[in-house]
Design brief:
This is GMP synthase family protein. With 247 residues, this protein is an alpha/beta fold. The chain has seven helices and eleven strands. Helix 1 packs antiparallel against helix 5 and helix 5 runs antiparallel to helix 6.
């Protein structure tokens, strides 16, 4: 029997960034194209998802924020948020393998009642992540050093988590860098799929999306080069290895 593939959900409308994200998940997850199917949610509706057909689901990041002013959300964003909310209700209910990268903190956090706001935003670039004691005991984080560098950049974050949700990682500026719901539903604020080339691509693509002043793009790239980001990708690989399932 063939391995059930993983499903990558993308909220990136920009093809350059979406394609780069897909290639990164393939590379760092150790997958081939048969093992990773993607749906671009900004281009088409999600439709029905039969969880039994997938080994796990990965949600990428992008320009959406669940805390955006409702009046300013596009019809596409409203649709995507509603589709993801419905999917996450089922995912959390059955504790299905799920990894939300960056946008996952907002979507999964909202689904479980976390406080999601703009109090702990971080600029685009490197961030120093600290694994919590609970994170050291977690299968996806256990092999990581207690402190490691990652790439990120976000407007919203989780200020607090509800009881029963396990905080796996933190940082000096952002109190929740990763958490787990149940045994199998994960969200990271940093990007486990992002290396230096990837963050430079994102800086170019999103320099007019309000994350930073466009004229600072090159200096942000230079600053990103000062971080040795090698460990976060192990989370993505561990997720794939742990949840690869036979149909």
């Amino acid at each position: 029997m063939a391995d059930a593939p993983f499903l990558l959900l993308s909220i990136r409308d920009e093809d350059e960034a979406a394609d780069d994200e897909y290639r990164a998940v393939l590379r760092f997850g150790g997958l081939d194209e048969a093992g990773l199917h993607r749906i671009g949610l900004t281009h088409c509706e999600l439709g029905a998802v039969d969880l039994s057909q997938w080994s796990g689901i990965i949600l990428g990041g992008g320009p959406y924020n669940v805390s955006d002013d409702a009046a300013g959300k596009s019809a596409t964003q409203v649709r995507v948020e509603a589709e993801l909310a419905a999917l996450l209700r089922e995912v959390i209910d059955v504790d299905f393998p799920f990894l939300g990268c960056c946008y996952g903190v907002g979507t999964v956090g909202t689904a479980v009642g976390a406080v999601i706001d703009r109090a702990h935003s971080e600029p685009v670039g490197g961030v120093t992540v600290q694994v919590t004691p609970e994170g050291r005991a977690d299968p996806l984080f256990a092999g990581l050093p207690d402190t490691f560098d990652a790439y990120g950049g976000h407007k919203e974050a989780a200020t607090s988590l509800p009881p029963g949700v396990v905080r796996l990682a933190t940082s000096p500026v952002c109190p929740v860098q990763a958490f787990r719901v149940g045994a199998n539903v994960y969200a990271t604020q940093f990007h486990p799929e992002l290396d230096l080339d990837g963050v430079c691509t994102r800086i170019d693509v999103y320099k007019n999306h309000g994350y930073f002043a466009p004229e600072t793009a090159e200096s942000l790239k230079d600053a990103a080069r000062g971080h040795a980001v090698t460990h976060p990708m192990a989370i993505l690989r561990s997720f794939v290895e742990r949840y690869t399932a036979r149909r």
